Amino acid sequence: MLNFVRKKDYLLITTNLFKYKVKVLIGADGAFSTVRKKMNIKENTLAPAIEIFEPVNLEYDKEFKEKKVVFDFSSIDDGLQGYLWHFPCIKNKKPYMNHGIGDFRINKKRPKANMEKLFIKELKKRNIHRNISTWSGYPIRWLSKFESVVQPNIMLIGDAAGIDPAIGGGIHLALSYGEIAAESIRETYKINDFSFLNYVNKLKSHLVGKYIQKLTYYANDMYNQRVNPLTVVEKIFSKKM
After folding, report:
1. What digits encode the pLDDT tens for the residues 51-101?
2. Residue 28 to residue 5: CA distance in whole angstroms
3. Span 3-44+142-236: which CATH code?
4. What is the pLDDT of residues 128-146, one digit of tens each?
């Protein structure tokens, strides 16, 4: 999709090939969603993230042998509103580690952390010396207001709508978004009301909406250093949610 124009009761969609008249437009096009951009939503909830893939070094990468992943929140003390991660994986049929850092910046009043400096410091601990030009950067969008995910005839789902700002997982949330969107579209045609307020209400009351709300609350406490990250993680990965 390149653009859309709102008509009386439909949208005129322009693509690189054709134009379409549609009653429903779903923005499922990621954190840099073109649909979201054309909706002129003013929220700034993009969290920068950096990652690299590096062949496993068993002297330093204990996670691969132990089959575990690491979320490191220690850099909150250095102003990071996020975490560093170390995930074992297979890349090109070979053992690799995915090392990364993300900063949700949920509190805009606090100074920005120096992500580059923090990441270099972390990589050096593992005897990794990579030129910055070889790093990969991408955004993570977190959801701050449910109402921002719809406009008449339009709904955003998955990363285009936003995930939680505590752990930042996207795949499991996207699946739930899809289920809610499908139910909302079916009801929308039945009642002939394309405001998609039913989608907002379903999202708020659904387990995924409650999960995002709860983790946003936890993230505020954690990144503003009102609570220990270990306490938050324990709640997230236990039945205390």
Report:
1. 999 999 999 999 999 999 999 999 999 999 999 999 999 999 999 999 999
2. 18
3. 3.50.50.60
4. 999 999 999 989 999 999 9
The label of the residue with tokens 């250093």 reads 225
DSSP, res 206: S
Tell me the angle at which helices 197-205 and 207-223 cross, rounded to the nearest 10 degrees.
70
What pLDDT, on the 0 to 100 scale, is given for residue 169?
79
Question: In this structure, are residues 85 and 115 in contact, taking their beta carbons and an 8 Å threshold?
Answer: no
Residue 84, SS3 per DSSP: strand
Residues in a beta bridge with 130: none
Task: Give the tokens for residue 214.
Answer: 């709860």
pLDDT digits (tens, 9 = 90+) for 160-173: 999 999 988 788 89
**pTM of the prediction?**
0.89
Listing DSSP states for 45-77 in one string gives: -EEEEEEEEEE--TTT-HHHHHT--EEE-GGGG
| Contact (Cβ atoms closer than 8 angstroms) between residue 104 and residue 115 | no
The residue ranges of every structural domain in the chain are: 3-44+142-236, 46-141
* CA dist., res. 212 & res. 115, Å (int): 25
Cα 116–141–130 angle (5° rounding)?
Answer: 25
